[in-house]
Structure formats: C-alpha cells, structure tokens
Amino acid sequence: MESAIRDNPAMSRFEMPLGDSLLAVAYYKIEDGRVVLLHTEVPQERSGLGYGSRLAHGVFEALRRDGKRVIAKCPFMSSYAARHPEYGALLDG
C-alpha cells in the first residue's frame, strides 16, 4: 500500500497519486531532526473513501523505515497514530 506514497522534499510533503491527476498529500516540516506532520489533504471528490488512512499508513511506514521521530500536529495524523499503537514508538510530543 505505501509503495504509492512518495516523499517530495522540495514541497515538504508526502504524496499519494489518486489518478485523474489528483493527489492526497501530507505536509510536513523538519524541526530539530524530527518530522512534524502539519496538515493532510484529500481531494473533496475522494473524501470519505479511505484514502487519508492509506496515506497515513504509508507515511508512518516510510518514517518508521527511515528511523525518523515524528510530531503529529495534524489532527488527522495524530488521530490515526492513536488508533494504531504500532506507531506510538515513533511519536514525540
């Protein structure tokens, strides 16, 4: 699932193509060596179909694979992490 997620450091966001030139994105910044997840967006026409959760899963898997520490300021990402305790070890703050 996370194979479709790509990091776009030039735009400080993770991207998941949805077809029809649509993207679900998770914006971040790097602060003190940690990835601060700021905001998640899914196009309105794809809202409620699970794409946000697929994006969150891919983002957390990529961050875990890369050994990153995470601050989830984005309410969606914070809520996702709370529902998936396997990502708790990544979280700071």
TrEMBL record:
Gene3D superfamilies in the record: 3.40.630.30
Chain ranges of the N-acetyltransferase domain: 6-92
Highest taxon above the source species: Bacteria
SUPFAM superfamilies: Acyl-CoA N-acyltransferases (Nat)
InterPro entries registered for this protein in UniProt: Acyl_CoA_acyltransferase, Gcn5-rel_NAT, GNAT_YJDJ
Protein name, UniProt field: N-acetyltransferase domain-containing protein
Organism: Bradyrhizobium ivorense
